Amino acid sequence: MKHYRSVLVVLALSLQPLAAQTIDSTAGPLRVDLQVGGLEEPWSFGFLPDGTVLITERAGRLLAVKDGARVVVDGLPDIEVDGQGGLLDILVPRDFAQTRELFLTYAKPQFWRKSGTAVYRARLSEDATRLEDGETIFEIARGTGGGFHFGSRLVEAEDGHLFVTIGDRGNGELAQDLSMHNGSVLRITRDGDAPADNPFAEQRGALAEIWSYGHRNPQGAAMDAAGQLWVAEHGAQGGDEVNRVEKGTNYGWPVISYGVNYDGSKIGEGQAKEGMAQPVHYWDPSIAPSGMAFVNGGMFPDWQGDALVGSLKFHYISRLSGDPLREVEQLKSPETERVRDVEIGPDGAIWFLSVLNGGLYRSSPAD
């Protein structure tokens, strides 16, 4: 009974009206409105054509919220909830209205008490209460123990293929090993196969799904208006990065880095090495980036094409602009505490998840 009483209290608090807050910005004051409260460690969200918002919680719960009412969606796979692992990203593909297909990433239990990032495909029932015909279409090879660095963002490419970010799982050396998926960005079909034109599809000993490698833990990923993929990834101390992801490219982790180990010792061989790409932008001190989106639509005309990245550490949304991208503004308020995910909604507003507040928020110009 204690558990049910606590749930009722959380739901009651989440339904209480709250006065709108504001964020100071170069676009003028931004109104911040709570859309969904009472969330428990939310990780990602996506929009359905009918206005429903789907929200994942790391502990293994998928919520469908519409017009203030929420339901728990059944039909998830067996999920390993360990450390940073659990139910992670959700992708609503462009053809959802025709197929009702969804894609999710999660930590999948594997052999000998190990786990790895996996991709789950299922159809959402017409009443949005359950996932049907669910199937794990992909899981990384030879998962490892420990609850670290699952990566786990999903992005739909223009051709319908899926990009999946994979962290190094706490073992940096594997990010340079093409026989492992650790520390890479993958490109797969909607059936989980490796497209024939992937860069390492014909290379002996390499895994065909790998698109780029040498990443530490990309927890932000987004496509810009030109169809270019970008990732924001956790580095070590003082080495968080934004990378423009190119086919077959090695991004250097852990051979090169702008950060240092947490004890202050040097990482790898320095900050640069021939054959390894430089980040477009890096943060020092580290901000713990998670979630990424590019501004589009007419609500923020002066910010068109800019990138937004959530900060888990310093509790703000970073706005990056220019060529190359550089942080030009920090959008910060009590609502932006530990921002896990950022999206531009169908209405053009900035939507974001706050882990510490347990809330999904919408931000738009106040006037």
Please provide a written account of the structure.
With 367 residues, the protein is mainly beta. The chain contains two helices and 25 strands. The chain has a five-stranded antiparallel sheet with strand order 1-2-25-24-23, with no helix packed on it. The longest helix has 14 residues, at 2-15. The N and C termini lie far apart (46 Å). Mean pLDDT is 93; it is low at 1-18.
The rounded distance between the terminal residues' Cα atoms is 46 Å
Question: How do the strands of the widest beta sheet line up side by side?
Answer: 1-2-25-24-23
General form? globular
Strand fraction: 35-45%
Question: Structural class given helices, strands, pairing?
Answer: mainly beta
Give the biggest sheet.
Answer: 5 strands, antiparallel
Topology:
Elements: H1 2-15, E1 21-23, E2 30-36, E3 42-47, E4 53-57, E5 61-66, E6 69-72, E7 87-91, H2 96-99, E8 101-109, E9 115-124, E10 131-139, E11 154-156, E12 162-166, E13 184-188, E14 210-213, E15 218-223, E16 229-233, E17 240-244, E18 281-283, E19 289-294, E20 307-311, E21 317-321, E22 326-331, E23 339-344, E24 350-354, E25 359-365
Antiparallel strand pairs: 1-2, 2-25, 3-4, 4-5, 5-6, 7-8, 8-9, 9-10, 11-12, 12-13, 13-14, 15-16, 16-17, 17-18, 19-20, 20-21, 21-22, 23-24, 24-25
